Amino acid sequence: MIGKTDLDVSGLCLGTNVFGWTADAEQSFALLDAYVEAGGNFLDSADSYMARAEGNSGGESETIIGDWMAARGNRDEIVVATKVGQLPGRTGLSASTITAAVEDSLRRLRTDRIDLYYAHVDDADVPQEEYLTAFDGLVRAGKVRALGASNFGPERLLSALEISGREGLARFEAVQPHYNLVERDYESEQAFFVEKEGLSCFPYFGLAKGFLTGKYRAGDDGPVDTGASEGPMRMARAEGAKAYLDERGVRVLGVLDEVAAVHDVPVASVALAWLGAQPTVVAPIASARTLDQLAQILPSATLLLTPDELAALTEASS
Fold it and tell me: Which domains does the chain have, with CATH numbers?
């Protein structure tokens, strides 16, 4: 479930930031069909996906999702999360921005409600009362079912929850932090009070920019194969993944390899299963641009690691 709502989601959230970028509409439909066929029901998008890609202006991911749901007639079976605040030309969390952005997202998604609506990033230039009141209005109007905070610092998240409680406003029910097996600041900075407040955690970069797929290995100094649609953003992600190849990273990969071999599953699924087993985490977010990549992450939704395996992975990444 998402927070204290009745929104029931699958154990793996499919990130759709690649839709309309490295996965065209046809590829994206195939990925969505395969994900749902495997039991998934939870999609993560944003109005800014993928505005930074050449030829795009933003909203491409939402449009593909909306077209797919309309074509399949399955809107009521899908939990859709999207975000506001990072679309070029419409950044921040002013009430006017939120009010306009939600209408555009609803139109692109071809739906009358968004299941989980995130503030993409905090906005220190707007009083929290202003954007929380605007979000509350969307919930009361039935345009949004639940609210989430992405990339919020602990103090600002706490103050938002305090304001919502004091003013009787709809509160954030979910958080979306940067968290994975090799990026664990969330555990010391937010996990305690996220659990205390009954919020749900949906971590992004669950595979550490691809590092935790096992694709990048020590001693591999050759060019990074990022596929036919090579681009600066993908090259940057690949270089970011390779940055984890220090002594600790090699140690983590070693344990991932051992556990994956025992369960006969891909390394990526083990990394996501570890993340999904952590306190407060309901479902990690991971994306795929091909069916083969999707197959690497799907087993994570049902993979149960033993306490010893979880402990070995935690120790390796400490």
Answer: 13-176 (3.20.20.100)
Say which of 49, 117, 131, 216 is annotated catalytic: 49
Read off the pLDDT of residues 88-115 as tens digits, 9 standing for 90 and up: 999 999 999 999 999 999 999 999 999 9
Name residue, tokens 């996906």: 49
Annotated catalytic, 117? no
Overall pTM > 0.70? yes
